[in-house]
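TEACHING EXERCISE
Course module: macromolecular assemblies
Task: Read the component lines below, then compare them to the predicted structure of the full complex.
Student: A.B.
Group: 4
Components provided:
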Amino acid sequence: MIEETTPSDELLDRWARLRRSQRRQSFQELPREYMDDFFLALDAPAQAELLLALPYAERRLFVRLLAPDDAADLIQETPKGERAGLMELMDDITRQETKALLDYREDVAGGLMNPRFARLRPEETIEQAITYLRQQLSRVEMIYYAYVLDNSQQLLGVVSLKDLVRAEPEKTVAEVMTRKLFRVSDTANQKEIAHLLTEHGVKAIPVVDAQGRMKGIVTAEDVIDVLREMDTKDIQKVGGMEALDGPYFETGFFAMLRKRAGWLVILFLGEMLTATAMTHYEKQIEEAVVLALFIPLLISSGGNSGSQATTLIIRAMALGEVRVSDWWRVAGREVTSGVALGVLLGTIGFLRIVIWQSISPIYGQYYMLVAVTIFLTLVGVVTFGTMTGSMLPFLLRRCGLDPASASAPFVATLVDVTGIIIYFTVAKIILNGTLL
Amino acid sequence: MIEETTPSDELLDRWARLRRSQRRQSFQELPREYMDDFFLALDAPAQAELLLALPYAERRLFVRLLAPDDAADLIQETPKGERAGLMELMDDITRQETKALLDYREDVAGGLMNPRFARLRPEETIEQAITYLRQQLSRVEMIYYAYVLDNSQQLLGVVSLKDLVRAEPEKTVAEVMTRKLFRVSDTANQKEIAHLLTEHGVKAIPVVDAQGRMKGIVTAEDVIDVLREMDTKDIQKVGGMEALDGPYFETGFFAMLRKRAGWLVILFLGEMLTATAMTHYEKQIEEAVVLALFIPLLISSGGNSGSQATTLIIRAMALGEVRVSDWWRVAGREVTSGVALGVLLGTIGFLRIVIWQSISPIYGQYYMLVAVTIFLTLVGVVTFGTMTGSMLPFLLRRCGLDPASASAPFVATLVDVTGIIIYFTVAKIILNGTLL
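Instructor-supplied answer key:
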C-alpha cells in the first residue's frame, strides 16, 4: 500500500537487526540524498549511537538537521564526555535553545516542548500580524496557532490562522484573540499533558514557567512516543514482568533476565503458599483422590477471571475512563459479572462430570456430590477472582502505586491460594459423611 | 499543574459518569462561550449523542464547527435516519468534502485523512507561492507542508515553510521542492499509516488515490486515537478477553459479559484437559499424595513464565521491533532464558523442600528424591512455558491471526496440561522403586 520505498526506508527496516558495528557502515553506504531523511527518522538513542560512530568531521552536517527539542533529546542520550563536543557543532541559536531545554527533566512539559512557536503582539493590526507571521515561518517549521505575548512574555491569548485571515485587517490582534486557553506549567508531568492533548482534542498546548512566561508548545507529535511508551510498560506489567526500558533486541540478555526473574521469583514465593495450603488438606486428598483431579481446573478458572477483570480496570484507569472514586460502581458491576460467569463455568463443570460419568464411571458412586462441589467451588472462585482482580488496581492506586502492577499473573497467584481453601472447604461440607 | 480550568473542563471530567439523560441539560447549562470548546473536545460518538439530544434549531451552530474529517466521523456515529438531516446543516463545501470522506471505510487512509491541505503549483514562483499560501490559510487550519500538484492533481513534491521562506523569491516551486516523499494509497490500512508516522518521524503523510491524485493528509493527531485503540485491544487480549469496543462504563453489562464469557469458556474447556490428564495419574497420586501438594505451584510457574514471554513478544511485534522472520533469533534467546529461569526457580523449590523438611518432616523419608523431582520439573516446565509463550505469537501471525490472541491466560492453559504431564513423567523416573 505504501508506494515508493527508498534505500533509507530499507535500511530503517533492517536497522534494529543490524549489529552495532555494521550500522555506521550501512549508513555511510546510503546514497547521500537519503542520509538526512534516514538520520531524522531514527529515534534519539539511535541518532546518538550513529553520530558518535561517525568521524568528527561528518557529525556537524547531521547535528545541524535537528530542531532544538530533538537536539536536546540527542544530547541526553550521549555520554557526558561527548556532550560539549556535539553542542559545539550547533549554530548559536539552536545551541542556546537546546541548553535551555536541557535544564528540564526529560519527563516534564519543559523537556518535551518545542521552543519555536509563532508569536504575535496584542497591539498589532491583523495586517501587521500576517506580515510578521510570514517572517517567522522559517523559525517555526509548522504553524498550529499563533500565541499573543506581551513585552514580558506573558501569554495573553491565542489566534488560529483561520481567525487571522477572516478578521478585518484593521482590527488589532487583541480584539480577535481567544483569551481563555489551556496552559501547562513547565514542570507538569508528561502523562498529564498526554492526557490533556488526547482528551481535549487541542492541537497544541502552550507551556509557561512559574512567572507565566511562555516557553514553548507541546503537540500531539511530541506526546505520541510518550503515550506508546506508557502503553508498552502497562502491557509488560499486565503480562507479569517489570517494564523493559527499550526494544526487545536492544535490551541486554542479562538485563532482561533480571527483570523477568524478579517478578517470577516473587510469584513463585507467593505460589508456594498453595503447597502450604495443600498440606493442610493432605488427609482429605488421601481419602478422596478424585478431589485432586480438579485442582488445576478450579484454580486456573479463578486466575483467568481475575486476569480479565484486572486487565480491564487497569486499561480503563490508564485511559481515564475509570477513576479511584468509581471503585464502588465498579465493585457492584464486577460482583454481578463474577457470579454470572461463575454460574456459567460451574454449569459446564457440573455437566462435564455428569456426562463423563455416564460414559465411563471414573468418579465413583458419589459423582453427583462431586459435581455439586465443583459447581459451588467455581461460583465461589470465579466471583472471588473477579472481585480481587477488579479491586486490586484501585487499592494499588490508592496506596500511590502503579495500578498496572496488579498484573494477570499476580492476581492469578493471589486467587490460587484462596481457590484451594474455597475448594476444600466446600468439599468438606458437601462430601461430609460420604467421601470425607 | 494545569492552570485555569474552565466550566467546560469540569463538565468534560464528569461527562462519562453522567447519565445520558443528564448530559444534554448539563451541556445547555454551560456558559455560551465554553460550549464550542466543550463540543469540539468530545469524541465523535459523544458528539453525535449530544447533537441528537439538542433541539433541531440548535444543532446547526455545532455542526458548523466541525472540519470535514470530524464531520464524517460524527455522521458515521449517527443512526442512518438522522444523517441526511445533519448533512443539511453543513455549509456546501464541507458537505461535499464530508460526502467524499464517507465513501471510505473508517479504518483506511481515506477515512482518516484531512482533505484540507496547503497546495501549490510547480510553475509558480516562490513569491507567488507565499501569496497563494496566505490565501489558503483560512481553509487549511494548520500548515505542515505545502504539497505541489499538477493540473490533474498528481502529487509532484513537497515544500516546507522553511524551504519556501529561505528560497530566492524568483525561483519556481518546482526548483525548490523535494520530489521523493512518502505517500500512501487511500485504501492503506490505518495501522500501516500509524506505523509509518511514528517510525519515520514525518509530520504528515499525503494520501493519493489509485490514479495518483492527492486526496488529503494524515497527521500524528489523526492516528493518536488509532494507536491508543490498538494498544487497548492488545492489552485486553493479553489479559484474556475479547477486545471491548468502547470505554468500560459505556459498554453495556451484557455486551461485556458476553465478551468475557467467550474466552473464559474456551479457557475452561482447554483447562478441562488437566482433569483428563490427572485421571491418568490418579494411581500415582494415591500412592504418593505428597506429589499432589506441588501441582498448583508447578503449573503456575510454567504459566507465569509463559505469560511473560508471550506479552513481551506480542508488544515487540506491535511496535515493529520484532518481525516474523526473527522467530529463530527469538527462539534461541528464549530457550536460554527459559533454562536460566527454570534453574533459578527449581533451586528455590529444591531448597524450600529440604529446609522445610529439616524443620518439620512432612515430606517423608524420600524428601530428597521429591526435591529433585520438583527441581527437574521446574526446569522443564519453565523452559517449555517460555518457549510456548514466545513462539505462539509467531505461529498466530504466520497463520494470519492476531498475535495478541496468544494471551497470558491462553498460554497458561496450554502450559498447565503439559506441566502435569512433565511432572508425573519426571516423578515416575525419579521416584520409581521408592514412592512409586
